[in-house]
Specification:
2 domains, about 190 residues, elongated, Topoisomerase I, Chain A, domain 4, alpha+beta, two-stranded antiparallel ribbon
């Protein structure tokens, strides 16, 4: 039929799957595991200067010890707002004021809370798997369209195998990230 080679853009598929993986990594990083991490405050936003901004744009976040975070707020008038935003964020952290520095002691996680966090991590991983499978489906649809335009069956099989291999690689990476995070969560 058609003499020219019909190409499927696997680079685009890989880029989109990598986007799902990056999103998963940032969601997992925001989960509290009993150890302090500055990324725990990434989802917290503060009403400052007439708009909502992330905490890291109104102060410096430090991890002085394994179970303590500090936020050194640059503008004294925002200290109360930052404290309130952290308190209401649902992180389960009780801020303590010390001038312009807000100290955030990270409490020890109990067994029940660890299991809940494990379930949340599993939900994040499942969302990433779904996103990767959706990208796979788009790739398979591209292959079907190319077949309708005259792609040979051999080429169709090769492209399908390549898209499936890409999908399998990313799903395996999601599973490894989840397993690693769940091990970290359950560690006492």
């Amino acid at each position: 039929m058609a003499d020219e080679e019909i190409e499927i853009d696997t680079d685009d598929l890989e880029r989109r799957m990598q986007g799902a993986m990056n999103s998963l990594k940032s969601e997992l990083a925001s989960l509290r595991t009993g150890r302090a991490s500055s990324s725990m405050l990434d989802p917290v936003t503060v009403e400052a200067y007439g708009q909502r901004v992330p905490v890291n744009q109104v102060g410096t976040i430090n991890v002085p010890e394994p179970r303590m975070l500090t936020v050194n707020v640059w503008d004294k008038s925002l200290v109360g707002k930052v404290e309130k935003a952290i308190r209401e964020s649902g992180l389960g952290i009780n801020p303590q004021l010390n001038g312009t520095i807000i100290m955030l002691p990270i409490p020890e996680l109990n067994e029940e809370r660890r299991r809940e966090l494990g379930k949340v991590a599993a939900q994040y991983a499942e969302s990433a798997r779904v996103a990767i499978r959706n990208v796979r489906r788009d790739g398979m649809d591209q292959i079907k369209k190319a077949k309708a335009q005259g792609m040979s069956e051999d080429d169709q099989k090769l492209w399908e195998e390549e898209v499936q291999a890409l999908t399998d690689r990313f799903i395996k990476a999601v599973d490894q990230a989840l397993e690693s995070k769940q091990t970290e969560i359950m560690q006492v």
